[in-house]
Amino acid sequence: MTDLSHPPLPGALPDKRQVAASFSRAASSYDSVAALQRDVGGELLGRLPSGFRPRRWLDLGCGTGYFSRALNTVFPQGHGVALDIAEGMLNHARPLGGAEHFVAGDAERMPLQDGCCELIFSSLAVQWCADFASVLNEAQRVLQPGGVMAFASLCVGTLDELRESWRAADGMVHVNRFRAFTAYQQLCAASGLRVVSLERRAHVVYYPDVRSLTHELKALGAHNLNPGRPGGLTGRARIVALVQAYEQFRQAKGLPATYQVVYGVLEKPL
């Protein structure tokens, strides 16, 4: 596994242009299979400080805008900006509303003014950012004093059942890599933002078969984007080996897929 507590090695995470293109292609199918994403974002909303009423908020990595619309409902007096690196997602989200502005941009270099937001909300987006320290630096710049950054991300241990099954099948890289939870701890502690809470929680989703899981990952745009991934079509023999290996994990509810979710709430000092 790759620990990204230090600057990442070249090729450790997917090229963000490939990430943007993959999620753009998935814009129309994303919401139909995003039950986990809705659960995680809902959990993150519930972790916002009690009584917090931001007048200006940013949905960072807004995707289809599901949580932009939720934020608009929760904070009707607020003004929202939805930002994503994937133009296809923004094109899907814009007609559905929720935010006043939909902006194409990179979380590591936000095209926003200093001190323009009281809340940065980011659910299952920053795991695609190789330089999370830059994301935190940008959050500190964009937030007003007393402002809050609430994020949910993925860490090492995510999709380990699929990773181990592929390793048994052919030993090649088929599953996206994520940074370690200790890296989140170190980077948040060094960010200059006050850590209100930071914890890891496992979410387990069950599937009737491997095909259902891999289809969902593709529909989300979150299938294998790693450098070093095998090119071309996956041979039938390898698929059979994958299915056989994954069956070792089967439980009464079906085949488990574990997502290790990091929930963080940070505050910019006054």
UniProtKB/TrEMBL annotation:
Q: Name one GO molecular function term.
A: malonyl-CoA methyltransferase activity
Query: What does the record give as the reaction this protein catalyses?
Result: malonyl-[ACP] + S-adenosyl-L-methionine = malonyl-[ACP] methyl ester + S-adenosyl-L-homocysteine
Q: What class of enzyme is it?
A: transferase
In what residue span(s) does the Methyltransferase type domain sit?
58-151
Name the InterPro entries for this protein.
Answer: BioC, Malonyl-ACP_OMT, Methyltransf_11, SAM-dependent_MTases_sf
Q: What keywords would UniProt list here?
A: Biotin biosynthesis, Methyltransferase, S-adenosyl-L-methionine, Transferase
* CDD domains per record: AdoMet_MTases
Q: Which GO biological process annotations does it have?
A: biotin biosynthetic process; methylation
Database matches in Gene3D superfamilies = Vaccinia Virus protein VP39 (3.40.50.150)
Pfam families, per database record: Methyltransf_11
Its Enzyme Commission number(s) read 2.1.1.197
| Coiled-coil stretches noted in the UniProt entry, renumbered to this chain | none
**Which pathway does it operate in?**
Cofactor biosynthesis; biotin biosynthesis
Q: What does this protein do?
A: Converts the free carboxyl group of a malonyl-thioester to its methyl ester by transfer of a methyl group from S-adenosyl-L-methionine (SAM). It allows to synthesize pimeloyl-ACP via the fatty acid synthetic pathway.
* Family that this chain belongs to: Belongs to the methyltransferase superfamily.
Question: Which HAMAP family does the entry link to?
Answer: BioC
Protein name in the entry: Malonyl-[acyl-carrier protein] O-methyltransferase
What is the organism field in this record?
Pseudomonas mucidolens
| Gene name of this polypeptide | bioC
